[in-house]
Structure formats: structure tokens, C-alpha cells
Amino acid sequence: LLMKELFGLGELEQELAVKFGLSEVVIVPGNADQSLAAKKALGRAGANVLLNKARPGDVIAVNGGTTVAAVAEMLTDSPVLKETIFVPSRGGLGEAVELQANYLASLMAKKTGASYRLMHVPDQMSEEVYRSLMNEPNILDVLKVIRRARIVLHGIGDALAMATRRNAPASLIAKLREKKAVGEAFGYYFNRRGEIVHRMQTVGLRLEDVHQAEIVIAVAGGASKGEAIASVCRGGSRDILVTDEAAAQSMIHLL
Ligand code: BG6
After folding, report:
1. Which of 24, 60, 90, 181 could serve as 240's disulfide partner, Cβ 3.0–4.6 Å?
2. Ligand 1 within 6 A of CB of 155
3. Is the shortest distance between the CB of 162 and ligand 1 below 6 Å?
4. Ligand 1, residues 162, 190, 200, 227: which to mutate, most atoms within 8 A of Cβ?
5. Res 2 pLDDT > 70
6. Cβ-count burial of 43 within 10 angstroms (0-12 exposed, 13-18 middle, 19+ buried)?
7. Strand (E) positions, the chain?
8. How, if at all, do strands 59-62 and 151-154 pair?
9. For 96-121, b where at least 16 C-beta lie within 10 A, e where not — what string?
10. Residues pairing with 157 in the sheet
């Protein structure tokens, strides 16, 4: 709290909330692009928000990435979180194993004493495989749990950075450039107005399920992500945003 007053971040939090129609904004000092301390602070703040919002019996869906991993690192044993179930929000999205939603859901469960369910689906699949997967009792079972999520906790990526990290084919990169994608979250790519310009085919939460969740917590920071975060916030609805000062400053200056 003292830090916040020192840096004048409270005002910026309110400005961002109003500008992007967010229900709550938490800003930590620094720039996660350049400082590990800022990334850890993001993780700690994200973990605190999760702890404050969770109720026993909740299903908590999480996506992948280094920022959600930072949240996982900060979670500890908690009587409430112990009574929750962590699940991945979507199937594989082409990340390194330690950044995948499945792994982070299990890590969060391990840190807090919660339960977890995993969803094993491939990244790329034909229409045929997709349809037969959707008839697998195991997959349907987990999907039912995932779609019940009361809380969704997710990271946000810069559109082209994410496409590159996922080894997207040149044709997709070209499409994203042409459609002016700037932000990405759980396999959906958004333009600056918050419109979806591309979605990756995988199994799990659809954007309409995310809008149905009671609490959506986005955790993302770094000066380079200002536009990306803004685009995803514009596509969302009254979410909670946990970010850092550098991203917040860049968001506030956008039109
Ligand atoms: C990915 C998620 O794993 O992480 C994306 O599927 C998200 O939706 C991305 O945008 C964010 O990654 P990071 O490392 O920038 O937190």
C-alpha cells in the first residue's frame, strides 16, 4: 500500500478501470519486460487476487505462459484454495511443457493442496480427429468441469510474439498482420478494437464460456504488452486486470 502511494499508482488504477470498463485494476511498480522483480510482483499480486476471490468448491481455469507461471510460483497452502479444482482453460496451444496450461494447473494444485483435472489433446488436429475427440467420454468429462469454471485466470500475449513462440506457419503470421492482430489470449487473437480476428482450433473454454465465468482475472505486464492488453480488455467484459506500471502507462496513452 505504501509503495502504491509512493508511486501514485492508485490513481492510475482508477483511470484504467474507467477507460477499459474493468471491475478492478491492480498495478505493481516496474516493467516486467526488463525486471524479474516486476514479473515476480505481478505473480504475487495475481496470486493475492485469486486468493481473495476464490471460494470453496470453485473450478479455476488457467491458461499458460510465463506470467501465469509466476502466479503459480507465488501460491501457497490455503484453506480455501485447498477446496478448489484447477483445470487448464484450453488444450495444448504449442507451448513448452513448463509453460502449458495443463502443467500450471497441476502446479497450482500442488502448491495450494487443491485438486486438478488435466486435458490431454494435441495442438494441431484434423477436423476428423477433433470430432472423434469430442466423443471421448474422458475428454467430455473434463470439458464439463472446465465449462463450469467460476474463475478464469489468464495471461495476455502480444499477437505476433505469441504466433512466433508457437511456431505458427508463415500464412498465419501474414493473416495476423493483414488483420492487424495486436493481442492474444487462450488462442484467440484480437485487433485493437477488441474484435476477434483469428482463433486457434483446440478443445476447451470458448470465449463465450469466459464471458459466462463470474470472475475473469487477466495477469499481464511489460511496456511491450500495452496494446495487447488493451485489445483483450476491449474484447472482454468487466474483468479484473493485474498489470505493471509500464504496461499501464502505455495503455493510458492509447486512443
Ligand atoms: C500462453 C497462453 O500460454 O501464454 C496465451 O496460451 C497467453 O493465451 C500467453 O497470451 C502469455 O504468455 P506470457 O509468457 O507472456 O505470460
Report:
1. 24
2. yes
3. yes
4. 162
5. no
6. buried
7. 24-28, 59-62, 85-88, 115-116, 151-154, 157-158, 181-185, 188-191, 196-199, 215-219, 240-244
8. parallel
9. eeebbbbbbbbbbbebbebebbbbeb
10. 184
Q: Which three cell numbers stand for residue 246?
A: 509500464
- The helix (H) or strand (E) run that includes residue 7 is helix 2-7
- Ligand 1: atom nearest CA of 185 is 8
Q: Is the pLDDT of residue 3 over 80?
A: no
What is the model's pTM?
Answer: 0.95
Q: Provide the pairing of β-strand 24-28 with 59-62.
A: unpaired
User: Got the DSSP string for 38-107?
Assistant: HHHHHHHHHHHHHHHH--TT-EEEE--SHHHHHHHHH----TTGGG-EEEESBS--S--GGGSHHHHHHH
Instruction: Name 116's bridge partners.
Output: 86
Give the total residue count for the chain: 255
Sequence letter at residue 9: L
CA distance 229 to 224: 10
Query: Distance between CA 51 and CA 180 in Å, rounded?
Result: 36
